Amino acid sequence: MLWISHLPTAFLFLLLLPCFPGQNGGENEQSTDIISVWEGESISITCSGSENQLGMYLTTGIRQVNVLYVSQKSTSFIFPALANRIKYSKEGRNLRITLHNVQESDSNIYLCFNYILSKGHHKKLKGKTTIVVVKAKNSGVVEQSPLYANPQQGQSVSITCALRSSHEEEGIYLLKTHKQPESVLYVSSRNDSTIFPAFANRLEYSKEGKKIVITLHNLRKNDSDMYVCAGVLKNASSLSVNRSGTIVLITEVEQTDCSNRSWVTYGLLIVIALLFCALICCSLYRVNMKKFFQKRKASAVYEDMSYCSRRNTLVRTNTYSN
Length: 322
Hints:
This protein is α+β, with helices and mostly antiparallel strands and 322 residues long. Helices cover 20% and strands 39% of the residues. Among the domains are: 30-135, Immunoglobulin-like (Sandwich), CATH 2.60.40; 142-248, Sandwich (Immunoglobulin-like), CATH 2.60.40.10. The chain has helices spanning 7-16, 263-315, and strands spanning 32-38, 43-47, 53-60, 66-71, 76-78, 86-91, 94-99, 108-118, 121-135, 142-145, 148-149, 157-163, 169-176, 182-188, 193-195, 203-208, 211-216, 225-233, 240-241, 246-248. The two termini are 64 Å apart. Residues 1-26 form the signal peptide. Keywords: Membrane, Signal, Transmembrane, Transmembrane helix.
């Protein structure tokens, strides 16, 4: 009965199974594509359709704008500023959108949505996310990398700002420019710095010549934004801004069921499971002991009979001796 010893472990595993992160089979999971192109090129985004759909949207995530809407009856709306550069075609349930002659201002997060009818109600379902980064052919005075970062909540991201060597700077800013415009950091040419409140105690930087590496720690969901390096040059009347910036999109960490459950409840369940296992073990132990003693008693009777038989044989006398 070796398997009995593994019952407590098995029960513990079953009880704690919801605590371990696992795959959800792709349910409600949406993909993210990243497209990086030069100015003047074209990009294509495909939005996947679904059953009972009434139409599909393509919107931007930064400074939200409805770029395109196409109904099931093929009526459409195109954002006027893009009307001359956008084309679309329906491929079964899918919608393929092509944007021609892309500009720096087209750098954005594009979101697909399905507009469906479910149980008599209209619903808007989020589909694929596409991050588009359009690189300027002339990088300007300020260089910056990376173009895009996708860390999880609680993680860190590093952004590098550098001025071209032929320019003498007075300082460099790191700015948030879209969803929540604000200053993040200012570092002067003398390495004096100002860290603004949004990243107090969450920012580190290192400066080497005209290059600064800025690391943002313990990222939060509302830190998602466009981050831009801007240089203050001597004798200049305006900021010199990097044209591309860095798109930072923070991914939420999936919460397991254990975060919302009481460990007291789990403790009680574990105790009950252990008591149940002990009851089973005791019952089986008693059954095995009963069988053992029954066998032992039968063996003793057999041995006693055997002994008596041998004894009678040894003490038997010769009746003809007299």
